[in-house]
Design brief:
The structure is a single chain. By secondary structure, the protein is an alpha/beta fold. The chain has a single domain, classed as Alpha/Beta hydrolase fold, catalytic domain (Rossmann fold). 38% of the residues lie in helices and 15% in strands. The chain is built from 20 helices and 15 strands. The strands form two sheets. Strands 1, 2, 3, 4, 7, 8, 9, 10, 11, 12, 13, 14 and 15 form a 13-stranded mixed sheet that branches. It has a two-stranded parallel ribbon with strand order 5-6. Helix 1 packs parallel to helix 3, helix 14 crosses helix 15 and helix 16 crosses helix 19. The radius of gyration is 27 Å and the shape is globular. 44% of the residues are buried.
C-alpha cells in the first residue's frame, strides 16, 4: 500500500510540474483582424480563438494619466496603425489582498484536496501582469464590425474595493454577452492611493483633490460615446454595469454631474456607495478623518509636510505601494469623496433627494455576501467592527449602533441569541448591512424617480456539501459572463442559470427590460411593491425579501445619511391663490342688470 502511495505521489508531482510549465507558456498571438479607424488613429485587433466572428481590440488608451491629476487627452498615433491584440498594463496596485480573497473562495467551495491544489497551480502559474501609472486603457469585444444595425453597448467596471483589479482579468474575457448581440467594453481605472488620495498640496494646486479614479471612469464613457460606433456599437444605448466597487462606482458616477448623459441604463451587482461618509476637508463623524487628513497621514513618511504637489508626484511608485501595505488601515480612505465640485453631495443624500439621473436600473446582491468578510470584521455591521466578548458585551455594542429596541429585533431576526449561534447570524446580517440594504435603497429611490427598476437576489450555492461560503460575494460574475473556471463543479442547472442571466442582462441592455421570450417573468419593482427575482436553478419572484431585517437597517442608513448631509430639503410650499385686480376691460364686459 505504501508503495502504491509513493507511486501515486510521484505521478501527481510530475503531472503538477508539467501542468505548471504548460500553463506558463504564452499563448500564440491572435490572427490579425481588419483595421478600424477611431479618433486617435487606426487600430488593428485580433480574431477570437473560440469564435472567428468576434473581434478583440485590447489596450486602447482612452485617456492619459498624470499622477494625482484629472485624466488628460488620450495619445494620438495618426497614420500609424496600432496593434491592439494584447492587453496593456494594469494600474499600479497592491497585490496581497486580492490573493487572500481568492484563497478564501478556493477554501470555501468544498473542493477536494486535489481540486484545491489544481486551482492554486493554475493561479500560481499566472505571471503578475505588467503595471504602469499610464494605465487608462480599455478593451472592446465585438461581433458587429460590419453590422448594418448598431448594437447596444455594455461597459463593465471591475470590482476590487477601489484598490485592485483590472478590466483585463480572465473572468471578464468571455463571448457570452457578445453572442447575444451587444458590444462589450471593459476598462482600467486608477486605484487605491494612486486613484483616490487627497492632500492639501494637491488641493492647493487644483482647487480640489481625490476622485481621480472616478474621473477616469467618466473619461472612458466619453471615449465610448465618441468612438464605439466604429466597432458596431450604439453610442445612444450604453449600459454601464459593474460588481462590488464597480457597482459602487456607478452610484458615484450617478452623483457626479460630469458623467450625466454618458450612459443610459445601469446594472448594479452587489455595491452602492450610499453609506460613504468621506469628505474632502471635514468629517461629519468623530474618529473619522477627512480625505485630506488621511492623505497627509499616508504621505507623512514619504514627503516633508511642506511638500508641493510636484514633490508628491516625485515619490517612487513602489514606495507608495509599500506604504499601502504597511498602513492598510488608511486604504479605506482611498475612495470617492464629497469635494463640493466633482462630487457636490454625499452619494446617499443624492439618491435620497432625487439628485441623480433617473435611468432604468437592474440591481441586486447575493444571499451570503457576508461569508467572505466576517472573519475580517468579526461583527454583524461595518459601523462597529470587532463586536466580540460575552453575549452581554455584544448586545451592548449592537445597541450602541442601532438603539436598544432595534438591536433586540435584529438579534432575534438573525438568530444571534446565544454565543453558539451569534457568528452565523452575524455573518448573515453583515451581508445585508454591507450590501442588501444599500441595493434595496437605491432601487427604491430609483423607482420613486419614475424609472423602471428590477431587483434580484442571487442564491445559487456551490454543489459540494462541504462548501462553507454559500452564495458568496462575486459568485454571480461567472454566471453573467459565462466564464466558469475550468475544473470547477458546474451542473446542468448551473448552465441553464448562466444562459438565463446572460439573457436577462443583455435584454436589459437592449431595451431597459430584462424580460424576454423563454425566460421566467421578472416583475418590475415599483413604489408600491417590494419584489425581487431569485436567481437560482428555478428563478422566481419573491415578495418582501428579508423585509423586516432590511427595514431596520434602512432606518439606520437614513439616519446616517441625515448625519452626513442634513435632512432632506423641504418640499416647496404650494402656490398661493392669485388675487386678480379687475381691469377696465373686465368691468366693461360685465353684464348690465336692469333695463330701460
Amino acid at each position: 500500500m505504501r508503495r502504491i502511495s509513493i507511486v501515486l505521489f510521484f505521478i501527481l508531482l510530475i503531472g503538477g510540474i508539467y501542468g505548471w510549465f504548460a500553463l506558463r507558456q504564452p499563448p500564440k498571438p491572435l490572427e490579425i483582424s481588419e483595421p478600424v479607424r477611431i479618433h486617435q488613429g487606426i487600430v488593428i485587433g485580433g480574431i477570437d480563438r473560440d469564435d472567428p466572428s468576434i473581434r478583440l481590440f485590447n489596450g486602447i488608451p482612452y485617456a492619459s494619466a498624470r499622477r494625482w491629476s484629472p485624466p488628460g487627452p488620450p495619445v494620438q498615433w495618426g497614420a500609424t496603425s496600432r496593434d491592439t491584440r494584447e492587453f496593456g498594463p494594469e494600474c499600479i496596485q497592491p497585490r496581497s489582498r486580492y490573493g487572500s480573497f481568492v484563497n478564501q473562495i478556493i477554501d470555501g467551495l468544498g473542493l477536494s484536496f486535489f481540486e484545491r491544489s489544481a486551482a492554486r497551480v493554475v493561479i500560481s502559474a499566472q505571471d503578475t501582469p505588467p503595471e504602469s501609472e499610464d494605465c487608462l486603457l480599455l478593451n472592446v469585444r465585438t461581433g458587429n464590425l460590419k453590422g448594418t444595425e448598431k448594437q447596444p453597448v455594455m461597459v463593465w467596471l471591475h470590482g476590487g474595493a477601489h484598490q485592485y483589479g483590472s478590466g483585463s482579468q480572465a473572468i471578464y474575457q468571455s463571448n457570452a454577452l457578445v453572442r447575444k448581440g451587444v458590444v462589450l467594453v471593459t476598462i482600467n481605472y486608477r486605484l487605491g492611493a494612486m486613484g483616490y488620495l487627497a492632500h492639501p498640496a494637491l488641493t492647493e494646486e487644483a482647487g480640489t483633490s481625490g476622485n481621480y479614479g472616478l474621473m477616469d471612469q467618466a473619461a472612458a464613457l466619453a471615449w465610448v460615446r465618441d468612438n464605439i460606433e466604429a466597432f458596431g456599437g450604439d453610442s445612444r444605448n450604453v449600459t454601464v454595469f459593474g460588481e462590488s466597487a464597480g457597482a459602487q462606482s456607478i452610484t458615484e458616477l450617478m452623483a457626479f454631474p460630469a458623467a450625466d448623459g454618458l450612459y443610459h441604463k445601469v446594472i448594479l451587482q452587489s455595491g452602492a456607495s450610499t453609506g460613504n461618509v468621506l469628505h474632502l476637508k471635514r468629517s461629519p463623524f468623530p474618529g473619522i478623518m477627512s480625505a485630506e487628513e488621511a492623505g497627509a497621514e499616508f504621505l507623512s513618511t514619504l514627503a516633508p509636510k511642506a511638500a508641493t504637489a510636484e514633490d508628491l508626484r516625485a515619490i517612487p511608485a513602489a514606495a507608495i505601494i509599500s506604504r499601502s501595505d504597511a498602513r492598510s488601515d488608511l486604504n479605506g480612505y482611498f475612495l470617492p469623496v464629497v469635494d463640493g465640485r466633482n462630487v457636490p453631495r454625499a452619494i446617499g443624500a443624492a439618491f435620497r433627494d432625487g439628485a441623480v439621473p433617473s435611468v432604468p436600473m437592474l440591481a441586486g446582491y447575493n444571499a451570503d455576501e457576508g461569508s467572505l468578510f466576517y472573519d475580517m470584521f468579526q461583527s454583524p455591521t461595518i459601523l462597529r467592527p470587532q463586536m466580540t466578548g460575552t453575549l452581554e458585551e455584544r448586545e451592548g455594542a449592537l445597541a450602541s449602533v442601532f438603539g436598544r429596541n432595534p438591536a433586540k429585533a435584529l438579534q432575534a431576526l438573525y438568530g444571534m441569541d446565544t454565543l453558539e449561534t451569534w457568528d452565523k447570524g452575524a455573518a448573515d446580517m453583515l451581508g445585508d448591512d454591507m450590501f442588501g440594504v444599500h441595493m434595496r435603497f437605491v432601487g427604491r429611490q430609483n423607482a420613486l424617480s419614475g424609472a423602471p427598476t428590477w431587483l434580484y437576489q442571487f442564491t445559487r450555492v456551490p454543489p459540494s456539501r462541504k462548501q462553507t461560503i454559500g452564495a458568496f460575494h462575486a459568485a454571480e460574475i461567472s454566471f453573467v459572463f459565462d466564464s466558469h473556471m475550468r475544473g470547477m463543479k458546474i451542473t446542468e442547472s448551473d448552465r441553464k442559470l448562466t444562459e438565463r442571466m446572460a439573457s436577462y442582462w443583455t435584454n436589459f441592455a437592449r431595451t431597459g427590460n430584462p424580460n424576454g421570450e423563454g425566460l421566467p417573468a421578472w416583475p418590475v419593482t415599483d413604489t408600491q411593491g417590494d419584489v425581487w427575482m431569485k436567481l437560482d436553478a428555478q428563478p422566481e419572484p419573491i415578495e418582501g425579501l428579508r423585509a423586516r431585517k432590511l427595514d431596520i437597517l434602512e432606518e439606520a442608513l437614513r439616519s446616517r445619511i441625515g448625519q452626513i448631509a442634513g435632512p432632506p430639503p423641504a418640499p416647496p410650499p404650494p402656490p398661493e391663490p392669485e388675487t386678480l385686480e379687475p381691469t377696465v376691460a373686465a368691468i366693461l364686459a360685465l353684464p348690465v342688470s336692469g333695463g330701460e
